[in-house]
Batch of 3 targets.
Target 1
Amino acid sequence: MSDGGHALLVDFGSTYTKLRAVDLASGRIVGTGQGPSTVTTDVTVGMEQALADLARRLGGTLPVFRHRLASSSAAGGLRMVTVGLVKELTAEAARLAALGAGAKLVGTFAYSLTAEDVTTIEDLAPDILLLAGGTDGGNSAVILENAAALSVASIRCPVVVAGNRNAATEAKRRLEAGGKPVVVTRNVMPEFGKLDLEPARDAIRAIFIDRIVHAKGIDRAAGMLDAVLMPTPAAVLDGAQLIAEGIEGQGGLGPLVVVDIGGATTDVHSVCSGEPARSGVLVHGLPEPYLKRTVEGDLGMRHNAAAIVEAVGPARIAADAGLPAERVAALLALLADEVERVPQTPDEARFDRALARAAIGLAAARHAGTVETVYAVTGPVTVQRGKDLSAVTTLIGTGGALVHADDPADLLRPALADPSAPGSLRPERPRMLLDRHYLLYAVGLLRAVDPAAALALGLNHLDTLEEGCHARHRCVS
């Protein structure tokens, strides 16, 4: 543990600039502050307001901060496009690398890019493009064709080349001939069925710091900070990893899953191997990354409420909310007209609860793998696709819908294994915790400079949830 001092941990979000002041000796929050996100105008305005809010909550005086670190998901987050060779292989590996680096994936392309594909990429206006394709020593033609096609595109964003190493130098030359900034890193799939995602993730994060922070205007706050370290989703995943693994001399909580439900997306992070928990199971498809993040862009509580209802069916939402179908339709229309609306009546609260439960259940099921019995010439075989989360020991919930719920355990329960869906490999009997203070990003940031204080911060402020329990601040020991 640190010998003292304080840290200021900042998240430049799309709506708010959020501050957490942490005592490094105890690993506890001493104050919080919040201001509007003013990245599109002058980021320092919102930062100053958040600092003033923090000072007011601390009695008028800010402590001297030993560390002042920030993450950002502002101005739409880190917009990224990936291009690979085969959809199920190198394109999927590129997608996993992008999501793990904290990017907002706005487009995924496979095979040789067509003129229409290039036009679509130009319209998407990515901040970074990840170009993959071919195993090392394998297919070179497609990645080189795609490099040539992208070299004449109107995009000016950096390109990370993470494909066949035998073609990487030529791909870089073609892209640079078109005026594109290029970073070459190791292949995301150097051998068939083998992933190597971390070098690409590191390259994406480095570009975020070097270029995107400036492009988004966040570097205007440089005088108030030591560094903007990474995109906020990457900070959350780093925080989850630390809480799972612990540090030398102090263990963590073990394999875990984080469900983060928001107004526009529901994100799921997992820290575990994902290998079959049962013997005799054959794994099909690409190996799953130990650190995995999925983003469900159709499962936001406000911007995508209609998509949630459509995905599970109005009848299920009505039954879970205990409301007539016509009332559900009326409430859905109300949200369409007022996206930022918070529940103001008991009916709206019940509808919100049902929406959250549906979104969490769907997002967890999509993140988790599946298992099924197939029949081969030798007889029945149990086949797993994706990540087995059944033995995960901890499930952490965060996001406004959970934090403000009367019974967050009730909302989080659909992320668990369901007897009615025996093929879904969701967690079976985890301890359920709540990140009530929205601290996972702060844990991830602090980990970079003081892992012991960061671990204490996470463990001190995660609340234990019990079935039907409305109690607050039941902290992890």
Target 2
Amino acid sequence: MEKFYALIQKHQLLEKGSTVVVGVSGGPDSLALLHLLVRIKDKWNLRLVCAHVDHMFRGEQSKEEMQFVLDFCKQHHIICEAKQIDVTAYAKKFHLSSQVAGRECRYTFFKELLDKYHSKCLALGHHGDDQVETILMRMVRGSTGMALAGIKVKRAFHNGYIIRPLLAYTKEQILSYCREQHLMPKFDPSNEKTNYTRNRFRKYVLPFLKKENPLVHERFQKFSETLLEDETYLQVLTKQHMNTVLKRKEKSLVEIDINRFKSLPLPLQRRGIQLILSYLYVHIPASLSSIHIESFLELLSQDHPSGSLDYPGGLKVIKSYQTCMFTFEHDDIKNFCFELEIPSVVHLQNGYKITCEIVKEPITFLKGNNSFLLIRKQLVGPLIVRTRKQGDKINLKGMNGRKKVKDIFIDEKIPLHNRNSWPIVEDGNGNILWIPGLKKSSFEAEYTDENEYVVLNYDEL
């Protein structure tokens, strides 16, 4: 009980008078947790709600375990919410492993109960051995940052938080407590199968570590807490510095300035990538690891001005000159071709607009390559705005001969991901008049006060 109290007080896991939903499978860990909470229930004025899910994996045996939990709660005057869920069918429907499907079903049920009982606290029975196994598994898998800290004693969940008051205990200590209190927990035989990664760590790695240090779980818990403290500080620094690196941040797209990013200390670079990925992914794919972060840093270090990486879940990383873009939208850029009415204003998908006006004195409208001037009566219509085509060439103003549009993009260091959406303006004869913001053609008119003009302007929205 001393460790139980100590962890609760150290991390402020419980508030007196609160309602606590307790996930209980009927196994020794969750049963011991529930029993410990029952022992402090009156002193802390707690309202306990037991939550049990029968995954229906083991037929009658699962039903017996559910009845065991119901009986235990009845004996101790605890509210019990038990639910049978066909997890196998759920896994098949959504193409998930049985473990992932089971977790999704459980946590959905937990959220429902938190709402039903107006509770902000979900208590789960993970213990010190679980912590050691989790940290080792994540190290082997290549996790980085806060993921390496393993299981948090307290973390945000739904409209409240999850607490894990047993992280100070080993499995053997929990089993010993169950024996002392005559709890008679149930045991899931699947926990002995070595086809699960965690079970292999539990059977082969953990015993070796305990021989080296019987208190290894305390060392790992200290490592977890210290790493979380360090990471929290570094995350604050990273967010501050990344604000100077970001060029664009949208729902499914982030663009950064490469030079500014590379000027950051390497620890902040790695965490900066993690911030970007956490923002873009709704759920971080299990296959995403430190390998992807290292491959990104290698991409930026290469001398070649362009390159790309494919990340899990359809995320593409595109380097082009001094910018790098993380995007899910690389396949969503649509070719366009439309007639530009005179006068009109059109909004483009790249975040710019083209304004077309009829004027007598256009001098005040001219803005270098962001504007284009035509004599209205000499204009061969219609004016067309489109995306580039293979082999596009333009007669540049002040130069003899024609130049490929592709070469202009390269000379101007236009990122690859911007080229396919860049507007091209041509006349009714198919002559390219203007590449807005970049180059003008020799077809631009010279201003005199004797004509009526069409002025095109290119501006940000």
Target 3
Amino acid sequence: MLQYRFGFLSLFLLTLLFGAGEAKAQELLTLEDAVRIALERNYDIKLSANDRRIAENNVTRGNAGMLPNVTANLANNRTIQNSTQTRSDGQVNEVSWGQGSTLNGGVGLNWTVFNGFAMFARYEQLQELQKLGETNLQLTIISRVADVMGTFYELVQQQQQLRAYDTAISISRLRVNTAQNRFEIGKAARLEVLNAQVDFNTDTTNLLRQQELYRNTQIRMNELLVRDVNIRFSVPDDILIDDQLTLAGLTEQAAQQNPSLKAAVLNRRIVELDAKQVRANRYPVIGVNTGYNFNRNRSALGFSTLSTGNGLTYGVSASVPIFSGFNQRRNEQNANIQINSAQLQYEQINQNINAQLAAAYQTYLTNLSLVRLEDNNRRIARQNLDITLEKFRLGSITTVEVRDAQLNYVNATVRYSNAQFQAKIGEVALKEIAGTLNL
């Protein structure tokens, strides 16, 4: 039994030493570094940034139809054919396998100068779409930063709990050593040694499970940061909570800065500009055109075997819609319905945001109260554990009482860590909804 005990303890100590050596080599990842890396590398942010750039590239007067279209064309066709020609005086001319050619080319310009102001509405719509792309990018950035912050503070919480389990193992190891010594000098039964070893093994299992959870969270963080998922790192131990948030202030900020609400406003404006383009179809469309053309025709038989020409062409075109089977009226009615739907969507999103804020703020207040309560419980549990361990060293207390004090301290520490984490996550969620999330 003695050999088994020392073998187990040696293995455990070697594990701790190896883990400590590895921890020294790990990088310390701060929240600022994590957010910076995510902004540079995260795939969702990059994809949203590409969409924004496309929307930005689309804002041109040419895309809105304000500029003319210029085209150039060239055609060179050749023929080989048998031809027969009968003239009015009865003379017949024949050519076998006669060759002919036609060469045509030119440059033309077409410009719609008026289409019921639809082109101006389209250009303004392209500008609004660019703003929508920027808003969607902002929404993606805030969402991914919130994910990074949530995962970061989850790692802090798990590190705090790892320390609590480390403390539990240290105490259990002390109990095993003490029980073994007492057994060897005849002052304790073997049952006390076995109970101490069972508790030690239980605490070791809890530590291993916590280490597994911590490692998996590290992998998830590396995935968010788009880097090697096998990178090991540590994070600072502190969780600083902003306890000065107010519901009125958050509601006011959300009305001005929430990306989803801003996107709803832009979507409503985009739909209004769509309706303006539909109404433009009632007006005439006026265009101008000009061009330079040349041609050359050669044939083996005919009154003229070669003809050429070149010159300018120009003109004005106009078209006026008169009747389209009542489709214009139907399209305008549908456009007005879409405007109403966009307004309803804005109101729905605004209502949803206010409801999210109210619920999240209540949870935030509850978690702040729990942080204060669990902090007090943790301090009391620590004092009780210190007193219990001192009595245990003096031999005036049972191992069952030591175990109770040990578990009370571990559980209080874990609850305090969870309360801190939940309060911080509540703070992050509130700022994400308000559109004010920052470091």
